[in-house]
Design a protein that fits this description.
heterodimer, A: about 450 residues, mainly alpha, ABC transporter involved in vitamin B12 uptake, BtuC, Arc Repressor Mutant, subunit A, 2 domains, about 75% helix, elongated, disordered C terminus, B: about 280 residues, alpha/beta, 6-stranded mixed β-sheet
Chain lengths: ~450, ~280
C-alpha cells in the first residue's frame, strides 16, 4: 500500500514530471468531457457518443496501416487520432442514415453500428499484430487506455484538444441550450439547427478522441455522461450545471489518475470512471433537492402529515379530544398503517405540538383541535363541490376527498366557498372548539 | 414595445403569389396549393389561403385534421410535398425576422435546467446574435414580456415547477419577446386554467391592437366567435375560411366534423351562440 507521503506527493504534483503531467492532463480532459457532456445529455445523444467512441477503433487501425505503408514515421499519435475521428464520425453517419432510411429505432441502430465497427477494429488489430508486429503492441492502449505510458507530447495534445472543446462550448452555450431545449422554435427563429447539432457532435468527437489514450474507447463515454448527470442532482440552472459538470469531471480525472498512479497495476481509465461513479452515487443519494434521500424524507413527511391529520379529523368528527388507543387503532386499521408507521405518526403529532400526554392518556392540544376542525371542513367543502359540480355520486365521494383535503390551499378553499355560495350551498365554518370538550 | 406599422403595399412584389389574381397582395401569409404528406400518406391536400392582415385567425377542425401540420408546413418545420408559402410576398427565409412562433407545450422537456426568464430570453436570441451572452437589457426585455402575461413573479422559478397554464404563458411570453408581426401559436389554450385563458386572450387582443396578425390552432369551438375574427375550418383540406360571421356556420361545421355526433352538437351550440352574440 502507498503511504501518506507518497499520496500527498502525487496529489500536489510532486511525484515526478510525467506523473504530474498525466494528472493535470486527465483533469483537463475530465473538465472538457463534463462541459461538453452536458449538451450531449440534454440533446439525448449520450448513447450516440458511445457508438462514436467504439467506432474509432477501425480508423485507428487503418491509420496505422496506411501510415506504415507511407513510412513508419507517420505512425504518430495525431495521425492515429485523426483516423479514429474519421471512422467515429462515419459510425455516427451510419446511425443517422439507418434512422432516416429504415424503420429501425435508435437503440437498435446504435447497437448495430457500435458492435460492428468495434468488431472491424478488433479484426484489423489482429491482422496488424500478425503481419506488422513492429510497434503494433501499443495499439491496444486505445481500447482500455493507458495513461501511465503517455509521453509529455501526448498529454499536451490531449490538453490542447480539451481546452479547445471547452472554449467552443462556452462560446456556443446559448445556441446549444436553445437547440437542446426546443429545436423547432430555434429553427423557426432562424438558427441553423443542423450546423449547431454538427458543432455539438464535433465537440463530442474532440473530447472522445482526446480521451482515447488516457481512458480508452470503451470507457471514455462515461466521462461524457456521468459528471453531467451527477451535477444535475445539485442544480436547476444551466450555467451552474455546466460549471459543476466540468468541476466534477475534472475532479474525477484528477483523483482517478492520482489513485492509479499509486496503484500501479490499475489502469487510469477504469479508476477515473470508478471515481466519477462514486461521485455520481453520492450525488444521487445526498443531493438536497433532487437526491433520493431528500425526496424520500419529503414523501415520508407528507405521509406523516396526512396520517396525523386523519387522526385529528377522526377525533374532531367524533367530538372528542382524546386519542384513545381504541380510536388510534380504528384509524390505523382503516388506513392500513404498519405499527412502526403508527409510532412515527404519533411522534410527529407530538413534535408539532398538536397532541400532548395528559394523565388520562393522549389528548389533542388547542392547535390540534383546530387543525382537525379545518381538515374536517375542507373535507366537507370538497365533498360538496364534487357532488354539486362534478356530478360525483355521494357514495363515491369519500375516497377521492381523502387525498385532496390535505392539500387544499387557503386560496382554493376561498374559491370553493364562493362557488358553492353561488349555488346557495354553505358549509358552516368549524365551531370554536377551544376548550369546548377539554 | 414598438408599435408595428404596415408598409403600404399597393403593388405586389414581382414574382410573388400576390401577383396572381386569386391571392391578395397585402396578405401577411399566402399559402398556394400546399400539400403535405407523412410517409407518402397525405395529411393536407391542396391548401389555398390568404390571411387578412391584423386579424386573430383560428384554425379549427377534428383531431387528425392537420391543424398543427398546417402551421408547421407554413414554417418549414415539416416538408411540403408541393405548393408555395409566402409572407408579405417573400419566402420564409427573408421574412422570418417578422415571424413569431409558440409551439405546443408538450413538444419540450420541461425538466430542462432553465428558469422561466431564461426561456423567455430565448425569444431575444436572434436579436443578440451568435456567441454573445444574454445581457441585462435582454433580461429586462424578457421580464417585461413575462409581466405582460402576468408571470413576473415566477421569473426565477425552474420551469418544471410551473403549472401547465403557467408553462403555456412562459411560451407565450417567449413569442412576445420575438417582437414579431405575424405569430403562429399551436394550441395555446390546451389544458389551461381559466386565469391563463383570460391572460392569453388579453395578450392576443393587445397584439391585434398593435397591428399584428395571429394564427392560432384552436380546439374549442365554443370560444371561436368570442376570441377570433377569422376562422379556417380544416379537415385535411380547407373546408371553408374567412370571417367568423360568414364562415362559422352550421353547414360548414357539419362538413368539417361530418359524422362526429358529439362534436356536432357542440358545434351547433357554438353556432347558436355566435348568432345570438352577433345580433
Amino acid at each position: 500500500m502507498p503511504d501518506l507521503a507518497e499520496l500527498l506527493d502525487v496529489l500536489t504534483f510532486r511525484a515526478g514530471f510525467n506523473t504530474s503531467l498525466v494528472v493535470a492532463g486527465t483533469a483537463l480532459l475530465g473538465l472538457a468531457a463534463g462541459v461538453v457532456g452536458v449538451f450531449a445529455l440534454l440533446r439525448q445523444r449520450a448513447l450516440m457518443a458511445d457508438a462514436l467512441s467504439h467506432a474509432t477503433l477501425p480508423g485507428i487501425a487503418i491509420a496505422f496501416l496506411a501510415a506504415g505503408a507511407l513510412g513508419a514515421q507517420g505512425r504518430t499519435l495525431p495521425v492515429l487520432l485523426i483516423g479514429g475521428a474519421i471512422s467515429g464520425v462515419l459510425g455516427v453517419v451510419c446511425v443517422q442514415a439507418m434512422l432516416r432510411h429504415t424503420r429501425l429505432r435508435e437503440d437498435a441502430a446504435i447497437g448495430i453500428v457500435l458492435s460492428v465497427f468495434f468488431g472491424v477494429g478488433i479484426v484489423a488489430l489482429s491482422y496488424i499484430q500478425a503481419h506488422a508486429p513492429a510497434g503494433s503492441a501499443g495499439l491496444t492502449r486505445f481500447i482500455y487506455g493507458q495513461a501511465a505510458t503517455m509521453q509529455p507530447s501526448d498529454v499536451r495534445l490531449m490538453g490542447t484538444i480539451a481546452a479547445i472543446a471547452i472554449l467552443c462550448t462556452l462560446l456556443l452555450l446559448k445556441e446549444f441550450a436553445l437547440v437542446c431545449f426546443n429545436d423547432a422554435f430555434a429553427k423557426v427563429d432562424g438558427w441553423p439547427i443542423s450546423f449547431i447539432d454538427l458543432a455539438m457532435m464535433a465537440l463530442v468527437v474532440l473530447v472522445t478522441v482526446a480521451g482515447l489514450q488516457a481512458v480508452g474507447l470503451i470507457l471514455v463515454v462515461a466521462l461524457l455522461i456521468i459528471p453531467p448527470v451527477a451535477a444535475r442532482f445539485w442544480t436547476d440552472r444551466l450555467w451552474a450545471l455546466v460549471l459543476l459538470a466540468g468541476g466534477l469531471g475534472a475532479l474525477s480525472g484528477y483523483l482517478g489518475s492520482v489513485l492509479s498512479a499509486l496503484l500501479p497495476r490499475q489502469p487510469a481509465g477504469a479508476v477515473i470512471v470508478l471515481t466519477a461513479g462514486a461521485i455520481f452515487a453520492v450525488s444521487m443519494i445526498f443531493a438536497p433537492a433532487r437526491g433520493v434521500l431528500a425526496s424520500s424524507i419529503r414523501r415520508l413527511r407528507l405521509r406523516l402529515r396526512i396520517a396525523g391529520e386523519h387522526l385529528l379529523e377522526a377525533a374532531h368528527d367524533e367530538n372528542a379530544v382524546e386519542l384513545t388507543p381504541d380510536r388510534i387503532g380504528r384509524v390505523a386499521r382503516l388506513r392500513g398503517w404498519s405499527s412502526p408507521f403508527r409510532i412515527l405518526v404519533l411522534a410527529s403529532l407530538r413534535r408539532q405540538g398538536l397532541t400532548r400526554t395528559a394523565p388520562s392518556g393522549l389528548v389533542l392540544t388547542a392547535p390540534g383541535v383546530d387543525r382537525g376542525a379545518q381538515v374536517s371542513r375542507k373535507h366537507a367543502l370538497w365533498a360538496q363541490y364534487l357532488i354539486s359540480y362534478a356530478d360525483v355520486a355521494p357514495s363515491h365521494v369519500d375516497w377521492s376527498v381523502d387525498q385532496v383535503e390535505h392539500v387544499l390551499s387557503p386560496a382554493l378553499v376561498a374559491e370553493l366557498e364562493s362557488k358553492l355560495a353561488s349555488r346557495g350551498i354553505t358549509v358552516p365554518p368549524p365551531p370554536s372548539t377551544h376548550g369546548a370538550n377539554a | 414595445m414598438s408599435t408595428i406599422v404596415h408598409p403600404p403595399s399597393a403593388h405586389p412584389k414581382p414574382g410573388s403569389l400576390g401577383e396572381r389574381p386569386e391571392h391578395s397582395p397585402d396578405s401577411p401569409l399566402s399559402v398556394h396549393a400546399m400539400t403535405v404528406a407523412y410517409h407518402r400518406k397525405p395529411v393536407l391536400w391542396d391548401v389555398d389561403y390568404d390571411a387578412p392582415p391584423n386579424k386573430l385567425i383560428a384554425i379549427v377542425g377534428p383531431n387528425g385534421a392537420g391543424k398543427s401540420t398546417l402551421i408547421k408546413a407554413c414554417l418549414g418545420l415539416v416538408p411540403r410535398a408541393s405548393g408555395q408559402v409566402e409572407f408579405w410576398g417573400e419566402p420564409y427565409r427573408k421574412a422570418r425576422a417578422r415571424i413569431g412562433y409558440m409551439p405546443q407545450r408538450e413538444s419540450v422537456d420541461w425538466d430542462f435546467p432553465v428558469s422561466a426568464l431564461d426561456v423567455v430570453a430565448m425569444g431575444r436570441y436572434r436579436k443578440i446574435g451568435w456567441c454573445l451572452p444574454v445581457m441585462k437589457k435582454h433580461k429586462a426585455a424578457a421580464l417585461a414580456c413575462l409581466e405582460r402575461v402576468g408571470m413576473g413573479e415566477f421569473a426565477h422559478r425552474q420551469i418544471s415547477q410551473l403549472s401547465g397554464g403557467q408553462q403555456q404563458r412562459v411560451f407565450l411570453a417567449r413569442a412576445l419577446a420575438q417582437e414579431a408581426e405575424l405569430y403562429f401559436m399551436d394550441e395555446p389554450f390546451a389544458g389551461v386554467d381559466a386565469g391563463t385563458e383570460r391572460a392569453i386572450v388579453g395578450v392576443l387582443r393587445e397584439l391585434r391592437a398593435q397591428g399584428a396578425t395571429v394564427v392560432v390552432v384552436h380546439h374549442d369551438l365554443q370560444t371561436v366567435p368570442e376570441y377570433f375574427d377569422e376562422v379556417i375550418l380544416l379537415n385535411m383540406r380547407v373546408v371553408a375560411a374567412g370571417p367568423v360571421a360568414s364562415v362559422f356556420t352550421r353547414t360548414n361545421l357539419h362538413k368539417t366534423y361530418g359524422g362526429r355526433l358529439t362534436l356536432l352538437s357542440e358545434a351547433a351550440e357554438a353556432v347558436a351562440r355566435a348568432a345570438g352574440g352577433g345580433e
